[in-house]
Amino acid sequence: MIRIGATILGALALAGCATTPKAGVCPPGQTQIRTAQLFLTASRQLSDEEVRRFVDQEVTPRFPKGVTVLDSGPPVVGGDAVIVPGSPKVLMIVLPRKGDSYARIEAVRAAYRAKFGHGSVVVLPPAACVAH
Q1: Distance between CA 102 and CA 7 in Å, rounded?
Q2: Which of 18, 62, 91, 108 could form a disulfide linkage to 128, CB 3.0–4.6 angstroms apart?
Q3: How many other CB atoms are there within 10 angstroms of residue 7's CB atom?
Q4: Segment 57-77, tens digit of pLDDT
Q5: CA-based Rg of the chain, rounded to a whole angstrom?
Q6: pLDDT tens-digit map of 5-27
Q7: What span, in angstroms and rounded, lies between the C-alpha atoms of 132 and 44?
Q8: DSSP code string of 32-101
Q9: 104: Cβ–Cβ under 8 A, 6 or more apart, which residues?
Q10: pTM for the structure as a whole
């Protein structure tokens, strides 16, 4: 899982559309955003419909500014040294500019665990400046 997270974060950093803000100030034409990335795994391959319903019911109401779902690629070795079937999904969530989003992120994780019986990994990268 960590390898996937590092790969995705590396790709985002190299994309050229985001920069790390200096002291919270972005260059002209850019806006500062914060994101959370949730790496979702399950004991079985989740259908696109199951993921869409989960996002619609649990994620979007908590984070209405933006959610993107990505396929992370081929199976990976989980923390318990077993191969995870299917391709884990990655949710990229745009966090509100103000306030603490931790409780809402944890609520999403708890809902995912309750619905699919499996955990998730959360990565909270630093804020970035993005072109708009």
Answers
A1: 24
A2: 18
A3: 12
A4: 999 999 988 899 988 766 555
A5: 15
A6: 444 444 444 344 545 555 567 88
A7: 38
A8: EEEEEEEEE--SSPPPHHHHHHHIIIIITTT-TT-EEEEE--S--B-TTS-BPPS--EEEEEEEPSSS--
A9: 62, 63
A10: 0.67
Q: Are 127 and 21 in contact (CB under 8 A)?
A: yes
Which domains can be identified in the chain, with CATH numbers? 2-131 (3.30.70.120)
Bridge pairing between strands 120-123 and 18-19: unpaired
Length in residues, the chain:
132
Report the Cα–Cα distance between both ends of the chain, in Å, rounded: 31
Q: Which residue has the tokens 């299917």?
A: 86
